[in-house]
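Please fill in the sequence for the structure shown.

STRUCTURE ENCODING:
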């Protein structure tokens, strides 16, 4: 497994495992504490694992947490997703930058998303399972959502959105969220 720093988002990393394939399928390590530690992250900091299943076209996000935020490792364990990270840390050298990744069950790549960054994804396959390893227990009172189609971000989502939560549909603009966080 190798770790590569993501240049568009300070402190973000892409972890790429080495799948071993044969006639049965494949096997690969999706988490390695030594590799995580090698980039300065505490592998023991992660306290919660979650998974979501989405169908093609479903969009989830853009989500982040207020307060101390939350860091997370995100991986598509089955299918394929278009994954987006937006840096919303005012002191970051990559503040307001965003980047995207195609994550898939075939590659098992994992993205480390630092606390203070928004995250969202769209399912590209009929079924896409997305796994999260999070460094804080979830507190719904800290949930923040930003409009996925915010013109300031201009994220080119690859598919027409087929479904999203009411919270995501009614999400405020990036400018509104930032104004609220400053106030």
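FILLED IN BY: designer on duty
SEQUENCE:
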């Amino acid at each position: 497994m190798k770790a590569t720093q993501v240049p568009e988002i300070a402190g973000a990393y892409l972890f790429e495992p080495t799948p071993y394939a044969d006639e049965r399928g494949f096997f690969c390590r999706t988490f390695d504490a030594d590799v995580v530690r090698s980039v300065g992250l505490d592998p023991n900091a992660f306290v919660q694992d979650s998974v979501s299943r989405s169908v093609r076209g479903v969009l989830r996000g853009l989500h982040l947490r207020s307060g101390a935020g939350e860091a997370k490792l995100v991986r598509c364990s089955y299918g394929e997703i278009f994954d987006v990270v937006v840096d919303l840390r005012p002191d970051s050298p990559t503040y307001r930058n965003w980047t995207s990744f195609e994550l898939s069950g075939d590659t098992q790549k994992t993205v480390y998303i630092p606390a203070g960054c928004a995250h969202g994804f769209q399912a590209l396959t009929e079924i896409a399972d997305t796994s999260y390893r999070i460094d804080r227990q979830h507190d719904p009172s800290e949930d923040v959502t930003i409009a996925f189609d915010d013109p300031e971000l201009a994220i080119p989502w690859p598919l027409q959105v087929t479904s999203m939560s009411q919270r995501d549909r009614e999400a405020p603009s990036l400018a509104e969220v930032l104004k609220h966080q400053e106030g």
